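Hey L., structure's done. Input below.
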Amino acid sequence: MTTRPIKHHGAKIDAAQIAALMAEGTGWMPQDGDEIEGTVLGAKWGYSDVAEREYPIVFILLDEGNLYQQPDDDREPNDVVAIHGLQTVLESEMFSLRPQPGERLYVKKIGKRGKAKRKGWDPPVAWAVTVPSRDADSGQAFWDGHKGRRASTAPPRADEGEFSEPMPE
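Output:
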């Protein structure tokens, strides 16, 4: 699988620089109607102690000049955002689309829709997720190597979820 080159502040960045950016990513905390778009840097598996399961976290690089800051957060605004696919519908969209490094990703939180499946549960949250201008042959290595969210509640191994390095220009 090859990926598209990724640029940050006008310069092509390598795998080590991408990893450093991902380590500093700011978690996205959207309200209903909030949307975000950027270039996928990579993904990793997170683990929820509350839900006792793993879930995908996709990191995007916002377009030059755009920054995100969590509400009521003292940290500096950031151009790398971590989209946590912990909610079932968003996670399903991520598994369906399987965004790859270098691709554009658009996510919008629509909000709660319908009724909860069980008493005491929240209703499902609707999301609009797309990978604009994707080609038909995009690779799926990261996603295909994972058994699915219900296959295991154990945290992922360190070697799971690795992407290939960006393709040289």
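The longest strand covers residues 35-48. The chain has one domain: 7-144.

-- N.
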